[in-house]
Amino acid sequence: MRVLKSILVPAALAALLAACGGSERVEDYVPTKLVAFGDELSVINSDGSKYSVNALKTNSTELDCATYPVWPQAVASGYGLVFPQCNSSGVLTTSAEMKAVAGAKVADVVAAVQAYQGTTGFTRATLVTLMAGQNDILAAYADWVAGTLTRAQATAQVAAAGKTLGTLVNTITASGNGGRVLYATPPNIGYSPFAASEVASSGSEDRRTMLRELTAAFVEAMRLAVTNDGAYAALITADQLTVSMATNTNLSAYALTNNTEAACTVTPLTSCTVATLVSGAASSGTTYLWADAKVPGPNWQARVGSAALSRARNNPF
Q1: Domain ranges for the chain
Q2: Could you say which of 16, 153, 213, 233 has the lowest number of CB atoms within 10 Å?
């Protein structure tokens, strides 16, 4: 069955994805607005397409953007909030804003947040989703491969970006007077088809090792920078989810049939639909971990979204 509006996250996986800390909730947190910042892993385009496998309406070539949601969309849906990019009927009141941009690096996300703060601003009723870093990691990796950065320099560069993103979380929450933030680590690109192809083309396993080291450096610096007692911000460890899904030999544990290859056969990724998948994907974007060589697909997105929604509902925001 191709429809995947949500995936239940087992208790053990929820523990893996969630950060500890925080006091008990006094009253339910109900945001009136959601704002998504980040890169292509959070984007819904104006036509409803995503950087993932896109669902189609039954017996149609028209995109079904409500199915196979990106993770901020899953969170928004849990609160009855709607992105205008996925409101094709036009009858729903849109109460979510898409500020994520494909290709964005941490510096771009910082600029987007600062611009939003300067015009609209955040309140406690604003729930912010934030995921970035993969493009910083890939850029540093490319410079290391080209020889323009040493291993130490590339690692320091991504660590600085991670620290900047963590500091941005603190800026948004503003000691309790600003928004509440669900911030997710980027997927671990060292377990992607891209990493495997880099090893194959170079003959060096160190290519894959470097991608994993850069991801780890970014994530560690980001997590250390956030003042996270659970009251204002909540962490979703999407990097660890990637590793778990990519290394688990029991694929059925994640409803997968393949965790090493890309499902999509076309570029750009926004053109990928359930009608343009490899034969093994069986017209379902949910059975493959990876949409393309670098981007996880709807199964991963749904699990990140489910974990994030659980954090929002259970943290003392």
Answers
A1: 11-314
A2: 153
pLDDT at 5: 47
3-state secondary structure of 231: coil
For residue 132, which of 163, 178, 176 has the smallest C-alpha distance?
A: 163
65 contact partners, CB below 8 Å, separation of at least 6: 44, 48, 49, 50, 54, 55, 85, 86, 88
User: Degrees (nearest 5) of the Cα angle 241, 40, 164?
Assistant: 75
Q: In what helix (H) or strand (E) does residue 130 lie, and over which residues does it extend?
A: strand 126-131
3-state secondary structure of 183: strand
- Write the DSSP assignment of 245-296 as a string of letters: HHH-S-GGGGT-SEEEEE-B-SSSGGG-BTTSB-GGGTT-TTSEEESSSSSB
- Where do runs of H (alpha helix) occur along the chain? 11-17, 71-78, 106-119, 134-146, 151-173, 193-202, 206-225, 238-247, 298-314
Structure tokens at 121: 């601003």
Q: Can you tell me which residue has the tokens 């028209």?
A: 62
241-267 tens-digit pLDDT: 999 999 999 999 999 999 999 999 999
Q: What percent of the chain has pLDDT over 70?
A: 90
Beta bridge partners of 129: 36, 182
